[in-house]
Specification:
Length: about 400
């Protein structure tokens, strides 16, 4: 009897595995890449995308970990008589397969965009009713990442539409990272861990540090507004399932201090790092922010724990993120318009993360080393208290760790 039960459980287990809707073991750390939308919107063509891939390598972005080149809306042409989708012939004359091959030849990966509705948000053909055919086409082209939007979806249910595309991708047989983009409307963090690898938690980002762009029936949000919504959802994130607070606006004109704070907040929240600027025309400051390996290491930490805001004192927010090997990222974010000086007295510091139960304790003999993650150097230990000046709307980021 026991043997029969064992065999039955093993068969059920195997079935569950086969029946899984998404590709597991993809996006075990937050995906990193570039997407055309924030900077280029409808102005996409194969020449620009190739140049962006070249720039991703030449600027050191690839070496820093950026991997996916994703074409957002407006690559589409028409469906053929059998219903298969093709790209716009004028803007992608060599076809998508040739473009994907080029991107792969650079050691990068290729992503594309579609929509669960009848039309994309830019009124291009959506995937509704063509999910399996579109997934087949993407697999044939060599697509590695699909961003899947939510326009033109009246009477469509998110919890049906996203699993349908997830299953279609799986059936097409090519491992494809599946990025849900329904703006948090149906709380995807509660159900999409089995369906995709990341989900947008908010409406679209807007190139502003602290504003709301109100269009009446929809709104776009600044960095701080998005951060507030996204930071509440840390319990749902982890390897293979990420909260996505939208693509980066670093390099699109934001002041350097705000861009640095934006990037740091995204890293502390274990967010996907999808650059949204023109990689062919970056100044040195933008490159140094986007390729800061210390902050990227925080974002990409293998534990995959989304960090949290611990306290706010005099407009300075203290954020923490537990890292592997009992290390911690500690960020001071000055929300105000004037510099703030702070002093950390390590001998009194003991903080427990209520979600993970992990404790940072620098009291008594628990001496830790301190690395400044923006200066990229060690700045001492917790033996003595540390004084810092956090510039206006900027951050001071530290790694607190013990010698292994
Ligand atoms: C929606 C998405 C954006 C972008 C556009 C394209 O607004 O949220 O990120 O993909 O559609 O039309």
């Amino acid at each position: 009897m026991k043997t029969k039960i064992f065999i039955l459980s093993a068969v059920l287990f195997l079935f569950q595995r086969v029946d899984a809707q998404k590709y597991d073991n993809l996006a075990l750390t937050p995906p990193m890449g570039w997407n055309s939308w924030n900077k280029f919107a409808q102005n996409v063509d194969e020449k620009m995308i190739r140049e962006i891939a070249d720039a991703m390598v030449a600027t050191g972005m690839k070496d820093a970990g950026y991997e996916y080149i994703v074409i957002d809306d407006y690559w589409h042409g028409k469906r053929d008589s059998l219903g298969f989708i093709h790209p716009d012939k004028d803007r992608f004359p060599s076809g998508i397969k040739a473009l994907a091959d080029y991107i792969h030849s650079k050691g990068l990966k290729f992503g594309i965009y579609s929509c669960a509705g009848y039309e994309t948000c830019g009124h291009q053909p959506g995937s509704r009713g063509y999910e399996y055919q579109d997934a087949l086409m993407y697999a044939k082209w060599g697509v590695d990442y699909l961003k899947y939007d939510w326009c033109s979806t009246k009477y469509i249910n998110t919890k049906e539409a996203y699993p349908t595309m997830s299953k279609a991708l799986k059936a097409a047989g090519r491992p494809i990272v599946f990025s849900l983009c329904e703006w948090g409307s149906s709380h995807p963090w509660e159900w999409a861990g089995e369906v995709g690898h990341l989900w947008r938690t908010t409406g679209d980002i807007y190139n502003c540090f602290d504003c709301v762009d109100d269009h009446g029936d929809w709104k776009a949000y600044g960095v701080l507004q998005i951060m507030e919504l996204n930071q509440k959802l840390r319990a749902y994130a982890g390897p293979g399932k990420w909260n996505d607070p939208d693509m980066l606006e670093v390099g699109n004109g934001m002041a350097a201090n705000e861009a640095r704070a934006h990037f740091s907040l995204w890293c502390i929240m274990a967010s996907p790092l999808i650059a949204g600027n023109d990689l062919r025309a970056m100044d040195a400051e933008t490159i140094s922010i986007l390729t800061n390996k210390d902050m990227i290491t925080v974002d990409q930490d293998s534990l995959g724990i989304q960090g949290f805001r611990y306290e706010v004192k005099d407009s300075v927010e203290t954020w923490l993120k537990p890292l592997k090997n009992n290390a911690w990222a500690l960020m001071y974010f000055n929300r105000s318009h004037s510099p703030k000086s702070i002093e950390v007295d390590w001998k009194n510091l003991q903080i427990t993360d209520t979600l993970t139960g992990k404790t940072l304790n620098t009291t008594q003999k628990n001496i830790h080393l301190i690395r400044d993650l923006w200066l990229n150097k060690e700045i001492g230990s917790t033996k003595k208290s540390t004084k810092m000046i956090v510039p206006a709307r900027d951050v001071f980021c530290l790694k607190i760790y013990r010698k292994e």
